[in-house]
Amino acid sequence: MIRIAHAEDFPRAAALAAALWEHHEPEALVSEFSAMDPASNVIFLAFEEEQAVGFAHCSLRRDYVEGSDRSPTGYLEGIFVLPQFRRRGIAKALLAAGERWAKENGCAQFASDCELENTQSERFHRSLGFAEANRLICFIKPI
Question: Which of 29, 57, 94, 135 is the most exposed place for a label (fewest CB within 10 A)?
């Protein structure tokens, strides 16, 4: 079962998100989720019986999105399924829920990204119909 997460679900969503974004603490993620504008962000949770086994954070981006020629653009900010529940279509169902939500909110395009070396994520995106829009190297220097 896939459903939208509510405030009481944020600790479960944050535990899953922390497995994806290892440099984030679950408590900080709960705070971030709580502060998000619900008009432009949604968290979906996937359940097997009563256990939360996957999440997807989707947003509506109105700023520039690589490859998009429309605004707003639906955006997959993050998606994660516990390893023991993978290859069952859960991520595909989470993505489909995000795409429906984006379409209901006026989007004609849905975007995402991954790090260049994250070949697993690249394969996932390609397998679900995403086409590469651009490759990017970001720079920073102290001043």
Answer: 135
